[in-house]
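Figure 2 data, in text form.
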Amino acid sequence: MDTELSDLENRLEQLIGLYTSGKSEVRSLRERVAALEADNRRLAEKLTFATEKLESLLDRLPEA
C-alpha cells in the first residue's frame, strides 16, 4: 500500500511539473505571438508608407 501511494505521489508530482512547464510555455508563446503581431503591424505600416510614396513618385513621372 505504501509503495502504491508513493508511486501515485511520484506520478502526481510529475503531472504537476508537466502542467507547470506547459503553463509557462503557453505564457511564453503568447508573449512571442504578441511581439510578432506588433512587428507585423509595424512592417505593414512601413509597407503602406512605401507603397504610397512610390505611387506618388509614379504619378509625378511625365507621360511617355
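Caption note: The first helix runs from residue 2 to 60.
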